[in-house]
Amino acid sequence: MSVPTAYRVKIELEGLGEAEGELVRIYAPRTVEALVRAMPLRARAYPADGYVYFQVPLSMGVEKPRREVEEGALAYWPQARAVCIYLKKLKVRQEVSLLGKVTMNLDVFKGVKVGTPILVEMVEKL
After folding, report:
1. Contacting residues for 48 by C-beta, under 8 A, at least 6 apart
2. How far apart are CA 37 and CA 1, in angstroms?
3. Which residue, of 2, 23, 31, 54, has the fewest CB within 10 Å?
4. Which residues pair with 116 in a beta bridge?
């Protein structure tokens, strides 16, 4: 049985719509696998300056640390135990682990208000 190289995920934001994303194992293998095992993830999303984040049931250190992210990037923020969705290219203050990217409908995250319910589910192994 071969190990998947990536996972397609569906991200639902209550009252706003859906987006799709891809978690890529090579970016942060331990973190991506732990997130997939924890799915489906239900949380509340919060807007911040240039990104949206939601807490996840992980307690891991940074893996392959990055200080710069691209628009649409999905990353794990260890200090907050959260996944971030970046709405623009940013230099971040604390190192994050890149997980993948939003592949469809990034604009849906621009409507997030404090506490918007979010659901992340795996759709397919790639």
Report:
1. 84
2. 17
3. 2
4. 45
Q: Read off φ and ψ for residue 91, nearest 5 degrees.
A: -100, 125
3-state secondary structure the chain: CCCCCEEEEEEEECCCEEEEEEEECCCCHHHHHHHHHHCCEEEEEEEECCEEEEECCCCCCCCCEEEEECCCEEEEEHHHCEEEEECCCEEEEEEEEEEEEEEECHHHHHHCCCCEEEEEEEEEEC
- The pTM assigned to this predicted structure is 0.95
Measured between its terminal Cα atoms, the distance across the chain in Å is: 13
Cα(89)–Cα(46) distance, integer angstroms: 18
Q: Do residues 52 and 71 touch, judged by C-beta distance below 8 A? A: no
pLDDT 10s digits, 6-38: 999 999 999 999 999 999 999 999 999 999 999
Hey, what amino acid is at 85?
I
